[in-house]
Design goal:
CATH class of the largest domain: Mainly Alpha
Low-confidence stretches: none
Strand content: 5-15%
Number of helices: 13
Order of helices and strands: HHHHHHEEHHHEEEHHEEEEEEHHE
Number of strands: 12
Structural class: alpha+beta
Radius of gyration: 33 Å
Strand order of the largest sheet: 3-12-11-8-9
């Protein structure tokens, strides 16, 4: 789930929670208002108490789901919202029963109750399919039936607003059933029966199957036990019991899987961090240059990487790269790309040849169709001459000893993994003592604040030029401080990686 969708979902969840709390408060207020009314039958007050408790329980249950935004949770939350509204609707129904003045209101409430029952059936099917990862022909057929049959089922309910086909409210304000009333249950039967079959045939754990089926079994038992005893309306209480069971068991199973996944991600984070050079200064005995780099992934693991290595005593390789995508797939692709790049450069290949060989290796078996942008430079330490090649990566920033940082718009080639047979052009940079080179991934200029504005390369250059004479570590700290000050509380969307090289000149010759 991307950042924008997750934000939209959280906004919807917040609104939903407010709605449910408002419903629960309204139920409680109604109960207090009608409590001393002598015309309200005792069983109506009992129903009102059940509805108030049910609405409050729905609010608590909803709040417990707030931090989970996957599709299965959204369907489960839909069940909670519909159940809460059904409690509220049911409470009004009993308060207004037998009042001719509110006959039309009571009829509308009856129609809404039946429509919400249809919604409960539909979202229960969707929740079971997503939470248990069900697939197959029966799932597809049931999904089509659930969508197609929902329209005539809703129309059958709505027509009762105008003529009592299945139910009605007489002139005395009393609800009554028509001979075709059980026809309203046809949609629920046609959807819940194949849903039950799918649950039984699934590979889910036994207790997960039991609690899923409880959504069908408990209301059916309630109906069987209360049939013929009109007056005590607690059917939505039985639905709530089933939802509580599903929450306790199915969410517990998901939490265990999530905990195992988090453990694996933490391990992957440590492995990835260990693969990147992380000791600074990296070559303390070499006074000809200074180096500093850092990577901050947007997730537990990232797709960016940097690298530097001595090819021989007079050549230093520098790499910064950004893999398409995020998370674990990007991290795996990053590790493969890093190993291949370093291997090609260590074989004595030039910058362009190293990129070409890396591209050939990745394109030969790139079933995931991922790609990586790369900037590669090979510095001849004794002379300051750097041979570079760019495979679709960001422009580097260059500072001469007596000047400020500015973008160096180099030649770009196609991204690594984009197409086989690509040749990469090289260019040379002559570094003099005091010159600095800053390379980065797009997570720096594309850092976004709450107003959806980008940090941009201009702000990046300004941050570098706040103290252009600083050492590489301080320069990276200045940029990161500027990025953090710009985005503030906004969530980090992309990996943020930077590397800075300071060339001090060749080592003095021993006489």
């Amino acid at each position: 789930m991307d950042r924008q969708r997750a934000k939209n979902v959280r906004t919807s969840l917040t609104i939903g929670l407010c709605v449910i709390i408002a419903v629960a408060v309204a139920c409680f207020a109604l109960a207090m208002f009608f409590f001393d009314n002598p015309r309200i039958a005792p069983h109506s007050l009992y129903n009102a108490g059940v509805d108030v408790l049910g609405s409050l329980s729905c609010a608590v249950l909803f709040f417990g789901c707030m931090r989970q935004v996957e599709d299965a949770t959204l369907h489960f939350i839909s069940l909670i919202v519909l159940t809460s509204l059904s409690f509220f609707n049911n409470e009004w129904f009993w308060y207004l029963r037998g009042l001719p003045l509110y006959r039309s209101v009571n009829l509308t409430l009856s129609v809404l109750t039946e429509l919400m029952d249809l919604g409960l059936t539909y979202f229960f099917f969707r929740y079971v399919c997503t939470s248990m990862s069900l697939s197959g022909r029966l799932v597809r057929w049931t999904e089509k039936a659930a969508k197609i049959l929902l329209i005539p089922a809703a129309l059958l309910v709505l027509v009762n607003l105008f003529t009592p086909v299945c139910f009605g409210v007489d002139m005395e304000g009393v609800f009554h059933q028509e001979p075709l009333f059980r026809l309203l249950d046809l949609y629920m039967v046609l959807i819940t029966v194949p849903t039950a079959v799918l649950v039984l045939r699934s590979n889910a754990a036994r207790r997960a199957k039991i609690v899923a089926l409880s959504f069908i079994v408990i209301p059916v038992l309630h109906y069987a036990l209360t049939e013929g005893s009109f007056g005590y309306s607690t059917q939505y209480g039985s639905v709530l019991i089933s939802l509580l069971m599903m929450y306790c068991v199915l969410f517990n199973e998901r939490s265990k899987k999530l905990a195992a996944t988090q453990t694996d991600l933490h391990t992957a984070t440590r492995i990835q961090a260990a693969m990147l050079p992380h000791q600074f200064p990296p070559f303390p005995e070499r006074k000809e240059f200074g180096l500093y780099a850092e990577m901050d992934p947007a997730r537990e693991v990232g797709g960016d990487f940097y690298d530097f290595f001595l090819i021989d005593q007079d050549h230093l390789g520098l790499v910064i790269a950004d893999v398409s995508g995020k998370g674990v797939p990007a991290a795996l692709f990053m590790m493969v790309s890093k190993v291949i790049l370093e291997s090609c450069a260590m074989l004595g290949k030039s910058a362009g040849e190293a990129l070409m060989k890396t591209n050939e290796a990745i394109c030969s078996n790139n079933q995931a169709e991922m790609f990586v942008t790369v900037w590669l430079g090979i510095l001849e330490i004794s002379s300051g001459k750097m041979t570079c090649a760019n495979a679709g990566h960001e422009y580097p920033a260059l500072k001469r000893a007596d000047g400020p940082f500015s973008l160096f718009k180099d030649r770009h080639g196609l991204v690594i993994g984009g197409m086989d047979g690509v040749k990469y052009q090289e260019y040379e940079l002559q570094l003099n003592p005091g010159d600095k080179l800053f390379v980065y991934t797009d997570g720096v200029p594309e850092a976004t604040n709450a107003e959806k504005k980008l940090f941009g390369t201009d702000r990046m250059i300004d941050a570098l030029n706040q103290d252009p004479g600083a050492d590489p570590e301080r320069l990276l700290w200045n940029v990161r401080k500027a990025v953090d000050g710009f985005v503030k509380e906004a969530e980090q969307f992309d990996d943020l990686t930077m590397l800075c090289l300071q060339y001090n000149g060749p080592a003095p010759q021993n006489l």
